[in-house]
Amino acid sequence: MVGSEETKTQVEPGVRRAKPRGRPRSFDRETALEKAILAFWEHGYEATSVSDLTRVMDIGAPSLYAAFGDKRSLFEEVVREYGVRYGSFGDRALAEESTARAAVERMLREAAVAYTAPGHPHGCLVIHAATNCSTPEVEESLRGRRNANIAALESRIRADIAAGELPAGTDAAALARYVGAVIQGMSQQARDGASRQDLEAVAEIALAIWPRT
Amino acid sequence: MVGSEETKTQVEPGVRRAKPRGRPRSFDRETALEKAILAFWEHGYEATSVSDLTRVMDIGAPSLYAAFGDKRSLFEEVVREYGVRYGSFGDRALAEESTARAAVERMLREAAVAYTAPGHPHGCLVIHAATNCSTPEVEESLRGRRNANIAALESRIRADIAAGELPAGTDAAALARYVGAVIQGMSQQARDGASRQDLEAVAEIALAIWPRT
DNA sequence: TTATTTCTCTAGCGGTCGATACAGAAAAAA
DNA sequence: TTTTTTCTGTATCGACCGCTAGAGAAATAA
After folding, report:
1. How far apart are CA B194 and CA B187, in angstroms?
2. Per-residue CB contacts under 7 A with strand C, chain B residues 130-189
3. How far is residue B79's CA from residue B68's CA, in Å, rounded to a whole number?
4. pLDDT tens digits for chain B (213 residues)?
5. B1 CA vs C30 C1’ separation (Å)
6. Is A109 in a helix, a strand, or coil?
7. Residue B28: Cβ within 10 Å count
8. Residue B175's closest CA among B110, B88, B103, B97?
9. What are A's interface residues with B at a Cβ cutoff of 8 A?
C-alpha cells in the first residue's frame, strides 16, 4: 500500500479505463495537492508538519499517505508541480526569447510580478522551502534546481557570445551567477515585504549592467 | 532561577566584584556561546535543537538554561554576538567610507570574503537562520535587522544625493534595495557552493550599475 | 445478495522537541 | 567545621513529530 503515485481513474485519452474497483477517493487529488503547495511554499519543508498538511488539505493522515506516499515524496511532487504551475517563467524566457539579454530582461521583470502576486505566498518555493532543513537530501534537491537554473542561463549566454551577440570577453559564468543572485535576492526581498513596484525598480537597476556588443 | 543574562563574575572595570558565592561555572561562557553561534549559523533557529546545542557547547541542559535562559534568549544573544564578531562589515563600510559609492563597493567586496571564509558556515546568519521559522517573533526579528540595514544604506545614499555626490534623480530606495538584494543573493550563492572568487566576480558586475554624477 | 476491493476514521506507535525537578557536588561565608 | 549558595548530572515531563494498524464504510464484480 505504498507509493501509488497515479490516480486510479485514468484520464489519458485512449486508455479510458473503467471505474476502479473499490471505494472511490472522497477528495480531489489536484485540489489537495494545490493546498500542499501553498503550505510548503509558505512555511518550508520542515516547518510544515503532516498535521498542518492534513488540516489544509482537509483529509486524514492515512488518506494523505495513501494518495501521496510519505512527507518526502509529497514534497517532491509539490516541487515538481510548483515548477509547472508557478516556477517556469525562467525556463520560458530562456526558450522563447531570441537573445540572452532579452531572456534575462523578461526573467527579471516577470520575477518581480510572480514573487509578489496575490493569492499565494511571496517569493520562490525553490529558493526558500528547504533552507535550514535537517534532511540533507531535501536541501540538496532544491539546491540542485537552483544551480541548474543558473547553469542553463550560463550556457544560453555562452551561445550568445559564440554568436557574436555578446562581447568575446564576457564572463558567462559570472554573468549568469549575478543574474541568479539578483533573482534570489529579489525573492528574499519579496518575503521581507517588498512590493511589485519595489522589485521592478530593482530589476531595472540590475539590467543596467548588461554588456554591450 | 530564570533569566540571569549576565555572568556573575563582573569583568567591567571599576566594580571588580569579589568572587561570587556558590559553586563556580565549570565551562567558559564565551566559548560555549561561540559554539552556539556556529550551530545556529549552520542550521538555523529551529533546526538546531537544544540537544544539538548541549552537545556542541559540551554542557548539560540545566547549565544551558541557567547561563543563557531559554532557546529564544540564547538565540537573541547569538544574533547580537554574531553581529559584533562577524556581521559588522556593512556598518563599518557605511561609517568609515566617505561616499555611499565607496561604502557599497567595500561592502560588496567584503561580503564576498566574509560569506566564504573558512572556519565557519558560509553566508550570513541574519539572512538565513530564521527562514521557515514557526516562531513568528524570531523570523520578524531577523527580518527587522535586514530591512534596517537596507534603510541605513538608503539614508546614506540620500545624504550623497543631497551633497551632490549622486545625481539628483537617483532613486535612493531602489538603489539601496538593489544592493541589499545583491548581498542577500550573494549569501544564498555562498550557501549553494559559490567560492570567494565567484562572489567577487558577482560583486564587480553588480557595482557596474552605480550612477555617475 | 454476496464477495471483493479500496478508502476513511479512530486511535496510538516510538521518537524527539523544549524545558525542568531534584539530588548531589563544589565553591565561599560564618 | 558548619552553613549557605550555586552549579551539574540524571531522569524525566507533556506536547508534538512522522507514520501506521485495524475496523468499518463505500464502491464495483459476480
Report:
1. 9
2. none
3. 13
4. 333 333 333 333 334 356 778 899 999 999 999 999 999 999 999 999 999 999 999 999 999 999 999 999 999 999 999 999 999 999 999 999 999 999 999 999 999 999 999 999 999 999 999 999 999 999 999 999 999 999 999 999 999 999 999 999 999 999 999 999 999 999 999 999 999 999 999 999 999 999 877
5. 25
6. helix
7. 9
8. B103
9. 43-47, 127-129, 131-134, 143, 146-147, 171, 173-175, 177-178, 180-186, 188-189, 191-194, 198, 201-202, 204-206, 208-209
Q: Please report where in the chains the cell 511571496 appears, as a residue.
A: A122
Reading the block at residue B193, the C-alpha cell is 557552493
Cell numbers linked to A78: 509539490
Q: Which three cell numbers stand for residue A42?
A: 509558505
Structural domains of chain A in order of their starting residue, each with its CATH number: 7-85 (1.10.10.60), 87-207 (1.10.357.10)
Q: CB-based contacts of A71: which residues, under 8 Å, 6+ apart?
A: A50, A53
A152-172 confidence digits (pLDDT tens):
999 999 999 999 999 999 999
Distances (CA, A) of B97 to B47, B124, B155, B163, B210: 38, 22, 14, 15, 16
Residue found under cell 500542499: A36
CA B28 to chain centre: 23
Q: How far is the CA of A7 from the C1' of C4 (A)?
A: 20
Residue of chain A whose Cα is closest to the Cα of B191 = A143
**C1' of C27 to CA of B31 (Å):** 22
The alpha-carbon gap from B166 to the nearest alpha carbon of chain A, in Å, equals 15
At A78-89, the pLDDT tens digits run: 999 999 999 999
**Can you give the C-alpha Rg of chain B in angstroms?**
20
Chain D bases closer than 7 angstroms to a protein Cβ: 4-12, 16-22, 24-29
* Residues in B touching A47 (Cβ below 8 Å): 46, 132-134
Q: Look at B132 and A134 and tell me if their CB atoms are within 8 Å.
A: no
For A68, the grid coordinates are 501521496
Distance between CA atoms of A101 and A198, rounded to whole angstroms?
22
Name chain A contacts of B134, Cβ cutoff 8 Å: 43, 47
CA distance linking residue A68 with residue A62, whole number of Å? 10
Joined together, the cell numbers standing for residue A48 give 510544515
Measured CA to CA, the distance from residue A27 to residue A59 in angstroms comes to 8
